[in-house]
Structures are given as structure tokens and as C-alpha cells.
Design a protein that fits this description.
The protein is mainly alpha-helical. It has eleven helices and two strands; from the N terminus they run H-H-H-H-H-H-H-H-H-H-H-E-E. The longest helix is centred in the middle third of the chain and has 28 residues.
Length: about 280
């Protein structure tokens, strides 16, 4: 009797391949909790200091209510990073954490997009778009830096590994090459967002900011393994679509209270608008 050949099944992915999926969902839940907390803070909190409280406490309360980036980002990232290092070895399973950086970067985009909606119907009653500008600037920078570090650390890892070809990993693998392109775009955005560069040519920054934002949202699902199409790509595309609709439907002519273009070494124009129209 002829024996059948022995067939060996090899796992397509390692045991850590899906290690970061739950972490991405966790970041999304934290984002939702933060939004609810922010809505409650602006609805029931108060900016004016209490006479019975210490000056330090009043200052913290004021900065918390005023959406100070240092306070709010500190709270947000404290919650997000609590389970970042968990279960897997940092030395023997470092790939898990490098991939986790990338997933963290992409999982935070829905919150960033939501807070910059104009108008934002969820927070419209107690917030204006301008309230979130400082937060948005620093939040966006952190997101892009996290994504950039994800790529840089992988390049370093492959470069120092004698058993791996950097060219094979970075250029010849389509998924990784897309990630490399994303890193270049993000780096260019960071350069354009530097204060002097942004003030010198704000139009360039604005165009690059929007194009790289769209590219980051659409290209990352091609690069990411395991995928981030649901729910992150769906949420990001939905929010992008709402941004576009808002800018078309709610765009209108308005009266400028004051305009100042008398600045040297910059093409910025400083305008003063009625606060009511910013909601």
C-alpha cells in the first residue's frame, strides 16, 4: 500500500500577528470616553476660579476647562499608554511594540478629525472651533511623530539585523514600501508645520497639511497588517466626508471686524471675527 506524502502546515503569521488589534479598539474606546468627558466638562464645568480653592487648583481647573493641550494631552495619553507595554517581551518581541506605535497613530485620527469638525454638532453648544486649535496642533504633531517613529524604528531594526535585507524589506515588499512613502510625506508635513516655515508660506502648509492628511488616511490601510479598514478607515473616511460637506454647505460670507496684514517676512493675515460665527 502506497503511503500518502506527509503534508506539513505552516502558520502564515506568527502568534503575535494579531496582538495589537484589541489595543486599537482600546484606543478608540478611550477616545470616546474623552469626548464624553470633554462634553460634560464644558457643559457643567466653569472657567471662573473658586475663592475657597488654592491658586494652584484654580489654575489647573482653568487650564482644564480651557482645553490646555498640556493638560488634556497628558490625560489622554496617560490613559492610552497604560496598557501599551503588556504581556510581550520588549527584547524578543519588539516587533509587537513597533507595530503598536503605528496602530496607535492611526487609531487616534478619528478623535483628531472629530474635534476639528466645523460646525461640531456634538460640542457646538459649549465650544467653538477655535477652542480646539492649540490642542489640534499639538495632537496632530504627536500623531505624526508616533507614526514616523514606527517607520524609523523598523528601518533601524532591519538595518542592524544581518539576517535581513533592508532593500528586500523596505523597497521590494509593497506593503512596507507604501509605509516608507507615508513616512516621507509625514516628514515633509512636519517640516512645513514648523513655526517659521508655516508663517513664511501658510498656503503651502495648508495644502500639504490637507493632502498628507488624506494620503495618510487612505494609504495606511494598504500598508497595515493586520488591516485597519474596519472600523478605523470607515470612521476616518466618514469624518473626512463630513468635513468636506461642512465646508461646502456651511461656507458663507461674513463681516471681518479687523484685518492686519502688516507683518514682515510672512504672508499671514491676522483677522478678527465675531465669536458667534465660530460655533
Amino acid at each position: 500500500m502506497k503511503e500518502s506524502p506527509l503534508i506539513t502546515l505552516v502558520k502564515r503569521h506568527s502568534e503575535t500577528h494579531f496582538a495589537n488589534i484589541k489595543y486599537g479598539y482600546y484606543v478608540l474606546i478611550i477616545s470616546l470616553v474623552y469626548l464624553i468627558g470633554l462634553a460634560l466638562l464644558r457643559a457643567f464645568g466653569r472657567r471662573t476660579p473658586s475663592r475657597s480653592s488654592s491658586a494652584f487648583k484654580n489654575k489647573i481647573i482653568y487650564r482644564l476647562y480651557d482645553i490646555d493641550p498640556a493638560i488634556h494631552l497628558g490625560i489622554l495619553f496617560f490613559a492610552v499608554l497604560i496598557p501599551f507595554y503588556y504581556h510581550y517581551s520588549l527584547t524578543t518581541q519588539s516587533t509587537v511594540y513597533l507595530k503598536r506605535l503605528g496602530r496607535l497613530s492611526y487609531a487616534l485620527i478619528p478623535l483628531n478629525l472629530f474635534l476639528t469638525l466645523r460646525p461640531n454638532w456634538f460640542l457646538r453648544k459649549n465650544c467653538t472651533y477655535t477652542d480646539f486649535i492649540p490642542f489640534h496642533k499639538w495632537f496632530s504633531r504627536i500623531i505624526t511623530v508616533i507614526g514616523l517613529l514606527h517607520g524609523i524604528f523598523f528601518i533601524i531594526k532591519w538595518a542592524i539585523d544581518d539576517n535581513v535585507s533592508l532593500k528586500q524589506k523596505l523597497i521590494l515588499k509593497t506593503f512596507n514600501f507604501v509605509g516608507f512613502i507615508i513616512s516621507i510625506l509625514v516628514l515633509f508635513l512636519l517640516i512645513c508645520s514648523i513655526g517659521p516655515m508655516r508663517r513664511y508660506n501658510y498656503r503651502l502648509f495648508y495644502i500639504v497639511h490637507n493632502l498628507v492628511n488624506v494620503a495618510f488616511i487612505l494609504l495606511t490601510p494598504i500598508h497595515s497588517r493586520p488591516g485597519v479598514k474596519f472600523p478605523f478607515l470607515l470612521l476616518n473616511c466618514t469624518l473626512l466626508f463630513i468635513h468636506i460637506i461642512n465646508r461646502i454647505v456651511f461656507a458663507k460670507s461674513l463681516m471681518i471686524l479687523n484685518k492686519n496684514a502688516n507683518y514682515s517676512k510672512t504672508n499671514l493675515v491676522h483677522v478678527r471675527l465675531p465669536r458667534a460665527i465660530l460655533r
